[in-house]
From TrEMBL, chain A:
GO MF: 6-phosphofructo-2-kinase activity; ATP binding; fructose-2,6-bisphosphate 2-phosphatase activity
Binding site for substrate: R257, H258, G259, E260, S261, E262, Y263, N264, R307
Taxonomic source organism: Phascolarctos cinereus (Koala)
Protein name: 6-phosphofructo-2-kinase/fructose-2, 6-bisphosphatase 3 isoform X2
Region (Disordered), start-end ranges: 446-481
Automatic annotation (TrEMBL), chain B:
Family: In the C-terminal section; belongs to the phosphoglycerate mutase family.
GO cellular component terms listed in the entry, alphabetical order: cytosol
Record key words, sorted: ATP-binding, Hydrolase, Kinase, Multifunctional enzyme, Nucleotide-binding, Phosphoprotein, Transferase
Pfam family, one: 6PF2K
Organism of this sequence: Phascolarctos cinereus (Koala)
Annotated protein name in UniProt: 6-phosphofructo-2-kinase/fructose-2, 6-bisphosphatase 4 isoform X1
GO biological process terms, semicolon-separated: fructose 2,6-bisphosphate metabolic process; fructose metabolic process
GO molecular function annotation: 6-phosphofructo-2-kinase activity; ATP binding; fructose-2,6-bisphosphate 2-phosphatase activity
Domain 6-phosphofructo-2-kinase span(s) in chain numbering: 35-249
Domain of life: Eukaryota
Catalytic-site annotation from UniProt: H257 (tele-phosphohistidine intermediate), E326 (proton donor/acceptor)
Family annotation (InterPro entries): 6Pfruct_kin, 6Phosfructo_kin, His_Pase_superF_clade-1, His_PPase_superfam, P-loop_NTPase, PG/BPGM_mutase_AS
Residue positions binding substrate: R256, H257, G258, E259, S260, E261, L262, N263, R306
Length: 514, 469
């Protein structure tokens, strides 16, 4: 047994020299275990306006960010493709046989795409987003999964609070393509009748009897209460933990970097230097900015590096230091300038430009490692309400990629300039982002993609199993109007109506990030 | 426009803190683990033999390991201290006035100790382990919590499977001090009668009557869970932990990589390969694993060459975890202890003063390691048979979790090279077997020297350094 190993150049992973087929036997993971071998179908269950699509999209965003390829299959969108003009709630009436046929066809079409995604397109998890309110429909999905050797996990949302339902309708239904030509009042009335159509035949999941053997979570009253049955594996356990930590309280997350540091001015990466004069000015400006924001109970988090703490000190408010928020460890390149790196480690310099997400500095970290390290920060951000995170360039890019559903490819190139605060507000199915420059000059630390990198990653580079993806586009998109196309790259998570009312916001986001 | 306060870096933990008048001002809090400002009172609920004490002890062990000061208060233990000899189940009959009085006194004594722990001794979480099967008793405890500013979280275990209950009785009740002079059959019969005493007045946590309480109901040893009103971070972590543990018998094997080239030279850290003896060990490990005949063994390594080389010899699939990498010694990487003493004598002394909290400059501390390893522990709880091939400091952290060692003991646990530790859960704890695989290796264990003063002479600092090339 030779035990001879070689270290992969990009990811610095030790692998055996003899050319045994590598991937099936070895998994490289920063933390978190082996992905389940069987793909999983997550089946949403619940009456309309219970937050199924909200949970589907949010969960999908989270799973993709931690590197589990996940996609949502929304049956309503399949229906909109087939039935060009939505007439009224009567389409959903249980006696409408023609419509029932169409709706079943759409579900089957979506399941066919699920099968394709999980078997042939490298998907690991498919979220089947529909009401699935009858035992019959759920049995059909269970049979489908059994035939294909997929695991099934049900997520049911139960909510009888009329104010919650009304508020959901306002937030995401009135602006649906179905109600494009209606007034708000008309739309609300029709939608309530639509819900009634489902209510008659609704058979909730019954884990005490009929559904004893199913793996499921019942979310009651927007997360007040949960019933969990037969969690089968690691990923289901993570999904349950995530669902139990998210909430829908309105709140704002502020992300910014430390003020300009001494090393920033010198063009040196990493290290643990203090703020420059301008950096200190920024902290004072940040303090004033926060006062103007007039926030209730703001939590402030920093890393354990001097420059973020100095910045927080100027705010004269309590703050918590997280080691997990420290800047990416550049290993042997710590405290060097890019010129010095190019001269001393030309191969490393080139490798990083080729594949900045997977590239790990020798004895240091990669963006991929950062994502693993930051996962507990994301989980706690989900639990919290108003938070300001004062961190670093690479760290901020990772966090931003989570909130804005950016892929591994885009993440290392997101623009996070010094002295600029990004204000994130959850809205509808996504996140509104505002960029606020606090008017204190600073050096630019952003390096664009090199010409080399633009050619795309070397296909021979072996991948680690953790690859954040932006959540894939829904397979069947609603009719696209010209405005949506223009802002397509930032608006995958924004509802179609929003740009019309507030035209500048997505553009601001786009300008700031690409 | 005042400029920010000056910062100073605490020499032990390397945490930046503001200072005024030359003294650190305690203003920022370094986040080890998110702790709630209010202490938390966990209240167990359930009939006897439903795993309450098992859960209490395990949860307490976990919380202490992640740095949340936790203690359990077992009312049965208070009763045993008060009533010196246990006679029979009749003590627990609902109409036994004398018995009821004593049991109430014990509960009150335990709550007084809870208050002392949480309000005076710096405890963060207290686990009140008793049956607490009536709503009335639970209301009393809840009020106690409110009066003292504690958040209360109930953990109920419900199980009707007679096999599970019988197995629990065999595992932990027959060996109880209560039954020290009884035969097994006698003890079992008495215990079953004891359970009956509680059944009539048992009021399970109810969906409506208890809808404003924070609780988790565990059904059938974890087949399903009902979670209500989780209030904060620590409750969310507790729920996650309880949902990941299981009771299926299994074994966890911990060992280090085979002896490495740097081990031979007495150098710490780095990323070298195995020495010839290290390779011998790898082969012996393969043989050992084979002989153990383990069902579905998972093998985990770090991402450092020496653990991977060791795993390669086993000829089975393995997973690499970056978080299993050895503690980062920062500026001291690849040095010998002699060199550290020469170039960083202050650091060397600080480390001896508080080895758990000491962070290498630009490196890590044991405290950092524990944070980093928490997902490994969580996944170990989910898994069944696992072999973890790791490193000295990492192995000490994992071992401390399984054997409930304190932060003071942890950095000095003995984890020699070429020795496999086999851990098997039994009753309320873990059976430990140590198997030396008969391949010689250097000793890398450095005991705490007597003199930890920063002004100590080098010989006194180096007196416990093990021999090396």
């Amino acid at each position: 047994m030779p035990m001879e190993l070689t270290q992969s150049r990009m990811q610095k992973i030790w692998i055996p020299i003899d050319h045994r087929p590598s991937l099936p036997r070895r998994r490289y993971r920063a933390c978190g275990p082996q992905l389940t071998n069987s793909p999983t179908v997550i089946v949403m269950v619940g009456l309309p306006a219970r937050g199924k699509t909200y949970m589907s999209k949010k969960l999908t965003r989270y799973l993709n960010w931690i590197g589990v390829p996940t996609k949502v299959f929304n049956v309503g969108e399949y229906r909109r493709e087939v039935v060009k003009e939505f007439s009224s709630y009567s389409f959903f009436h249980p006696d409408n046989e023609e419509a029932m046929k169409v709706r079943k066809q759409c579900a089957l079409a979506a399941l066919r795409d699920v099968q394709l995604y999980l078997k042939e397109e490298g998907g690991q998890i498919a979220v089947f987003d529909a009401t699935n309110t009858t035992k019959e429909r759920r049995d059909m999905v269970l049979d489908f999964a059994k035939e294909n050797d997929f695991k099934v996990f049900f997520i049911e949302s139960v909510c009888d609070d009329p104010s919650v339902v009304a508020s959901n309708i306002m937030e995401v239904k009135l602006s649906s393509p179905d109600y494009r030509d209606c007034s708000s009042a008309e739309a609300m009335e029709d939608f309530m009748k639509r819900i009634d159509c489902y209510q008659v035949n609704y058979q909730p999941l019954d884990p005490d009897n009929h559904d004893r053997d199913l793996s499921l979570i019942k979310v009651l009253d927007v997360g007040r209460r949960f019933l969990v049955n037969r969690v089968q594996d690691y990923i289901q356990s993570r999904i349950v933990y995530y669902l139990m930590n998210i909430h829908v309280q309105p709140r704002t997350i502020y992300l910014c970097r430390h003020g300009e540091s001494e090393y920033n001015v010198l063009g040196r990466i990493g290290g643990d230097s203090g703020l420059s004069i301008r950096g200190k000015k920024f902290s004072v400006a940040l303090c004033k900015f926060l006062e103007e924001q007039n926030l209730k109970d703001l939590k402030i988090w920093t890393s354990q590096l001097k420059r973020t703490i100095q910045t927080a000190e100027a705010l004269k408010l309590p703050y918590e230091q997280w080691k997990a928020l420290n800047e990416i460890d550049a290993g042997v390149c710590e405290e060097m300038t890019y010129e010095e790196i190019k001269e001393t480690y030309p191969e490393e310099y080139a490798l990083r430009d080729q594949d900045k997400y997977y590239y790990r500095y020798p004895t240091g970290e990669s963006y991929q490692d950062l994502v693993q390290r930051l996962e507990p920060v994301i989980m706690e951000l989900e639990r919290q309400e108003n938070v300001l995170v004062i961190c670093h360039q690479a760290v901020m890019r990772c966090l931003l990629a989570y909130f804005l559903d950016k892929s591994a490819d885009e993440m290392p190139y997101l623009k996070c300039p010094l002295h600029t605060v990004l204000k994130l507000t959850p809205v509808a199915y996504g996140c509104r982002v505002e960029s606020i420059y606090l008017n204190v000059e600073a050096v630019n630390t952003h390096r664009e993609r090199s010409e080399e990198a633009k050619k795309g990653p070397n296909p021979l580079m072996r991948r680690n199993s953790v690859t954040p993806l932006a959540s894939p586009e829904p397979t069947k998109k609603p009719r696209i109007n010209s405005f949506e196309e223009h802002t397509a790259s930032t608006s995958t998570s924004l509802p179609s109506c929003l740009p019309r009312e507030v035209p500048t916001q997505p553009l601001l986001g786009k300008a700031c990030l690409t | 426009m005042a400029s920010p306060r000056e910062l100073t870096q605490n020499p032990l933990k390397k945490i930046w803190m503001p200072y005024s008048n030359g003294r650190p001002a305690q203003h920022a809090c370094p986040r080890g683990v998110c702790v709630t400002n209010c202490p938390t009172l966990i209240v167990m609920v359930g009939l006897p033999a439903r795993g309450k004490t098992y859960i209490s002890k395990k949860l307490t062990r976990y919380l202490n390991w992640i740095g949340v000061p936790t203690r359990e208060f077992n009312v049965g233990q208070y009763r045993r201290d008060l009533v010196k000899t246990y006679r029979s189940f009749e003590f627990f009959l609902p109409d036994n006035e004398e018995g009821l009085k004593i049991r109430k006194q014990c509960a009150e004594a335990a709550l007084r100790d809870v208050r002392r722990f949480l309000s005076e001794e710096g405890g963060h979480v207290a686990v009140f382990d008793a049956t607490n099967t009536t709503r009335e008793r639970r209301e009393t405890i809840f009020k106690f919590g409110e009066e003292n500013g504690y958040k209360t979280f109930f953990v109920e275990s419900v199980c009707v499977d007679p096999d599970v209950i019988a197995a629990n009785i065999v595992q932990v009740k027959l060996g109880s001090p209560d039954y020290i002079d009884c035969g097994n059959d006698e003890a079992t019969e008495d215990f079953m009668n004891r359970i009956e005493c509680y059944k009539n007045s048992y009021e399970t946590l109810d969906e409506n009557l208890d809808k404003d309480l924070s609780y988790i109901k565990i059904m059938d040893v974890g087949r399903s869970y009902l979670v209500n009103r989780v209030m904060d971070h620590i409750q969310s972590r507790i729920v996650y932990y309880l949902m990941n543990i299981h009771v299926t018998p299994r074994s966890i094997y911990l060992c280090r990589h085979g002896e490495s080239e740097l081990n031979l030279k007495g150098r710490i850290g780095g990323d070298t390969g195995l020495s010839p003896r290290g390779k011998e060990f790898a082969k012996s490990l393969a043989q050992f694993i084979n002989d153990q005949n383990i069902k579905d063994l998972k093998v985990w390594t770090s991402q450092m060459k020496r653990t991977i080389q060791t795993a390669e010899a086993l000829g089975v699939p393995y997973e690499q975890w970056k978080v299993l990498n050895e503690i980062d010694a920062g500026v001291c990487e690849e040095m010998t202890y002699e060199e550290i003493q020469e170039h960083h004598p202050l650091e060397f002394a600080l480390r001896d003063q508080d080895k758990y909290r000491y962070r290498y400059p630009k490196g890590e501390s044991y405290e950092d390691l524990v944070q980093r390893l928490e997902p490994v522990i969580m996944e170990l709880e989910r898994q069944e048979n696992v072999l973890v091939i790791c490193h000295q400091a990492v192995m000490r952290c994992l071992l401390a979790y399984f054997l409930d060692k304190t932060a003071e003991q942890l950095p000095y646990l003995k984890c020699p090279l070429h020795t496999v530790l086999k851990l098997t859960p039994v009753a309320y704890g873990c059976k430990l077997e140590s198997i030396f695989l008969n391949v010689e290796a250097v000793n890398t264990h450095r005991d705490r020297p007597e003199n930890v003063d920063i002004s100590r002479p080098p010989e006194e600092a180096l007196v416990t350094v093990p021999a090396h090339q």
